[in-house]
Amino acid sequence: MWRNTNSGWGLVSILLHWTSGLAIIGLFALGWWMTGLDYYSAWYNLGPWWHRSVGMLVLFATLARLAWRWSQPTPAAHGPALERRAASLGHLALYLLMIAVLVSGYLISTADGKGISVFGWFSVPALVSDLPEQASRAGVVHWYSALALMVLSAGHALAALKHHYLDRADTLVRMLIPGRRDESVDGTDRS
């Protein structure tokens, strides 16, 4: 139930997937909203504090997620070879974009040499700072990577819905129910 099998995702993978996805969408929405705040807004300082704190937690969760993924079997994919290859490349791109967004956010926040306080619980030190135009260059990477991540995530969601409703595969259900085997809607085992 906790671990992946060759035919289904485990609870750890499922929780990391959905928690990360919701947090990243929330961070994107908060980041977009923050761009419209003025100095006199009550959220002028609070919004970035939340954004940085949650962003650091998502960075740690993403690193844990990658380690977990590499240590676990990946359930077999089904469908045409081109579709399986596209899915594989799409997942790789999602992970690369997540890392780009999270690391560039860290570089923006630590450009002045100060660490990042994560909800006041602990501080993440500034390991890299004082690079030429660090905050502005990392800001460009952060913005465009975040936009690309949202577009690719929407494509990922649409692909899951396509597999569920058009192909009648249990791809989406496997990411909702731990240990679920891939079966078609009529109950025929397809794993």
Structure description:
The protein has one domain (11-174). Helix content is 62%, strand content 3%. The chain is built from five helices and two strands. The chain has helices at 11-34, 43-71, 81-109, 134-165, 171-174; strands spanning 116-118, 122-124. It has a two-stranded antiparallel sheet with strand order 1-2.
SSE blueprint and pairings:
Layout: H1 11-34, H2 43-71, H3 81-109, E1 116-118, E2 122-124, H4 134-165, H5 171-174
Antiparallel strand pairs: 1-2
Helix pairs in contact: 1-2, 2-3, 3-4
What is the terminal-to-terminal distance?
17 Å
Characterize the largest beta sheet: strand count, sense, and whether it forms a barrel. Answer: 2 strands, antiparallel
Outline: elongated
Structural class: mainly alpha
Number of helices: 5
Count the beta strands. Answer: 2
What is the number of independent domains?
1
Strand content: under 5%
- What would the average pLDDT be, to the nearest integer? 92
Radius of gyration: 19 Å
**Helix percent band:** 55-70%
The neighbouring-strand order within the major sheet is 1-2
H/E topology pattern: HHHEEHH
Low-confidence stretches: 184-191
In summary, what is this structure?
By secondary structure, the protein is mainly alpha-helical. The protein is built from 5 helices and 2 strands.
